[in-house]
């Protein structure tokens, strides 16, 4: 809910010209100067966010070029409704691995013009697209919480996620993809199996402990440790 007014100077406007902006609130039925935009230079724009207090009410704007000796006619914008006409930014994402699943965090976009209650109200439902990067296999989810576990994924594989806020009036801009790997399955590579056929033999009260290396496992650098109770 950050509102910006832009315009282009008319033909022949001198580079030294300044610009002033006024806003028309239909409830007040009056043109009011936008205090931050009464002496703008060429190429500057006007931030209307602090001048729009009620997102449910229409407003209009007008811009005038002026110099110390001249004023141009006013140029008028179309009527603007903050709730209906605002382009909603993408939600912010976080993504972390949790085994064969991913934990997705969703928060509304940063904004200085929307009350936290309205942030929670408008950014309640999200359309989430999940893509396995290896082969671009996709599936979609409708998520209604700020943290969601995407489970039953393939372990040790990269997935990318995008999210779009589902708003009654219009969709928001989708987020950029955020990618993460699921955790790999525990690997048996490098794990040393226990010895086989452990036995004690005695000859003239001399005790001998013997064993065989594990089958199908050969390593000439292995050493063994024996303990007794």
Automatic annotation (TrEMBL):
GO cellular component terms, semicolon-separated: plasma membrane
Biological source species: Chanos chanos (Milkfish)
Domain of life, per lineage: Eukaryota
GO MF, one annotated term: cytokine receptor activity
InterPro entries referenced in this protein's UniProt entry, alphabetically: FN3_dom, FN3_sf, Ig-like_fold, Interferon/interleukin_rcp_dom, Type-II_Cytokine-TF_Rcpt
Chain segments annotated as coiled-coil in the UniProt record: none
Domain Fibronectin type-III: 87-185
Protein name, entry field: Interferon alpha/beta receptor 2-like
PROSITE patterns: FN3
């Amino acid at each position: 809910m950050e509102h910006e007014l832009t315009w282009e100077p008319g033909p022949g406007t001198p580079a030294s010209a300044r610009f002033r902006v006024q806003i028309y609130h239909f409830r007040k039925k009056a043109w009011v100067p936008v205090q931050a935009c009464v002496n703008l230079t060429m190429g500057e724009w006007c931030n209307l966010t602090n001048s729009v207090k009620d997102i449910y009410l229409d407003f209009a704007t007008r811009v005038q070029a002026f110099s110390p000796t001249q004023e141009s006619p006013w140029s008028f914008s179309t009527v603007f409704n903050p709730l209906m006409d605002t382009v909603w930014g993408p939600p912010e994402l976080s993504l972390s691995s949790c085994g064969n699943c991913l934990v997705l965090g969703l928060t509304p976009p940063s904004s200085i013009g929307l009350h936290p209650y309205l942030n929670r109200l408008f950014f309640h439902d999200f359309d989430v697209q999940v893509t396995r990067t290896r082969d671009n296999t996709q599936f979609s989810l409708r998520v209604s919480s700020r943290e969601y576990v995407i489970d039953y994924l393939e372990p040790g594989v990269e997935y990318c996620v995008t999210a779009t806020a589902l708003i009654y009036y219009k969709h928001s801009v989708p987020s950029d993809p955020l990618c993460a790997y699921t955790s790999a399955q525990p690997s048996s590579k490098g794990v040393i199996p226990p010895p086989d056929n452990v036995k004690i033999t005695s000859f003239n009260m001399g005790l001998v402990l013997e064993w065989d290396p594990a089958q199908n496992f050969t390593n000439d650098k292995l050493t063994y440790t024996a303990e007794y109770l």
